[in-house]
Specification:
The complex is a heterodimer of chains A (110) and B (113). With 110 residues, chain A is mainly β. Chain A contains no helices and 11 strands. In chain A, strands 2, 4, 5, 9, 10 and 11 form a 6-stranded mixed beta sheet that branches. A 5-stranded antiparallel beta sheet of chain A has the order 1-3-8-7-6, with no helix packed on it. In chain A, strand 4 and strand 5 form a beta hairpin. The mean pLDDT of chain A is 96. With 113 residues, chain B is an all-beta fold. Chain B is 0% helix and 50% strand. In chain B, strands 2, 4, 5, 6, 9, 10 and 11 form a 7-stranded mixed beta sheet that branches. The radius of gyration of chain B is 13 Å and the shape is globular. The termini of chain B are far apart. Classes of the chains: A mainly beta (110), B mainly beta (113). Chains A and B meet through strand 4, strand 5, strand 9 and strand 10 of A and strand 4 and strand 5 of B.
Amino acid sequence: GENVEQHPSTLSVQEGDSAVIKCTYSDSASNYFPWYKQELGKGPQLIIDIRSNVGEKKDQRIAVTLNKTAKHFSLHITETQPEDSAVYFCAASRASKIIFGSGTRLSIRP
Amino acid sequence: NAGVTQTPKFQVLKTGQSMTLQCAQDMNHEYMSWYRQDPGMGLRLIHYSVGAGITDQGEVPNGYNVSRSTTEDFPLRLLSAAPSQTSVYFCASSYGQATYEQYFGPGTRLTVT
């Protein structure tokens, strides 16, 4: 079946450094790629998304890139801060179906 | 707006018992969905609905039933709970299908003994 692979599963970076999380998807018909942040005890919350007709999107310290040919997309967080510590999920969707990656636990070291 | 609400927050069931997880949204969203979250497996889609009276299966539908009689409510039923259904369950809604931002509820932690 269709799947989304996400790497790494855990990531620890020094405060102020950058963090990169990568995902690959298998369904070539996917056309929407969101990233969600989940804090402890809460539901996931959208932080950025990108559609298949766009290669890159940026929102302050967060950016996402999409390579449709290779079927992979990445989340980049620059100048990391303690409040960036959380679990991050990528997803790929089309129409009524969405598949999530397995998540990345990001820790920011002081 | 309350957004997406889920009840209960925690539940313990014995094997074979049945229960309904409640989900409601006040954003007039047509698309609603249920996910389960297990360690190391991310979020997996159980069932979804594109509008009142319309439901369909996701990745892991076995053991779960849903119905959508109103735009606001989308309950998830476990007919005969099994230990494999121990998980955290999230309900979500969105403006239009799965290709728009999903608004998640706070989750229900279910334990089946």
